[in-house]
Amino acid sequence: MNYTSLLEQVEAKKIVPVVKLDRASDARALGEALCAGGLPVAEVTFRTDAAEESIRIMKREFPEMMVGAGTVVNVEQAERALAAGASFLVSPGISRSVVEFALDHKLPIFPGTCTPSEVMTAMEYELLVVKFFPAAQYGGLNTIKALAAPFPSVRFMPTGGINASNIMEYLASDKIIACGGSWMVKDSLINAGDFEEITRLTAEAVALVSEKREG
Ligand code: 3PG
């Protein structure tokens, strides 16, 4: 998928569930739970060894899903994400080698930033959207607004500390393309096999952000 289409899809969804799967054998049920909740998107983080296989399974079982790789901190992980069929990469920070790998392979990337210098590094690569992480600890929307002022072409995908109680505050700003968060896909729910609760929380989140789209 090209960069522009991917950005449009991310913006339409408004939420990117950030997933940590300990077992790839849970990937199918998780994909099903997210799709049933109306949010066929996942950022599967390379915080565990199950990430690569989980991405592969989700892409195979749910071709309509937009499945990206998260917590990509080096080129080796980026290569594995690409091989598994990831539609995009997300990094907690900005690594030139990872960004260059992504651009060379036409793989959309959201590098993590939280300072003007990091945003400027992303701009050197003509990236239009950066992750802002960890959002809550770095001052949330106020910091994003201050960061956005000198960089009018850049938009942000905040993650870290976002949940149903504060996501609408972020989405009210046109500087925010979408928010990442794990509140509907917590490891504890995945590890307990409580996929019904994941679907319920996902549907609740989708309903919440739909209000904004309609209003
Ligand atoms: C991330 O990797 O983007 C964050 O850890 C997600 O943050 P959250 O768990 O606070 O939603």
Record the SSE blueprint:
Layout: H1 3-13, E1 15-19, H2 27-36, E2 41-45, H3 51-61, E3 66-70, H4 75-84, E4 89-90, H5 96-104, E5 109-110, E6 112-113, H6 116-124, E7 129-132, H7 140-148, E8 155-158, H8 167-171, E9 179-181, H9 187-191, H10 195-214
Parallel strand pairs: 1-2, 1-9, 2-3, 4-5, 6-7, 7-8
Helix pairs in contact: 2-3, 2-10, 3-4
This protein binds 3-phosphoglyceric acid.
3-phosphoglyceric acid binds next to strand 9.
Protein model, in words:
This protein has 215 residues and is an alpha/beta fold. The protein contains 10 helices and 9 strands. The protein has helices at 3-13, 27-36, 51-61, 75-84, 96-104, 116-124, 140-148, 167-171, 187-191, 195-214, and strands at 15-19, 41-45, 66-70, 89-90, 109-110, 112-113, 129-132, 155-158, 179-181. The chain has a 4-stranded parallel sheet with strand order 3-2-1-9. Strands 6-7-8 form a 3-stranded parallel sheet. The chain has a two-stranded parallel sheet with strand order 4-5. β1, α2 and β2 form a beta-alpha-beta unit. α2 packs across α3 (51-61), α2 (27-36) packs parallel to α10 (195-214) and α3 (51-61) packs parallel to α4 (75-84). The longest helix has 20 residues, at 195-214. The protein is globular, with a radius of gyration of 16 Å.
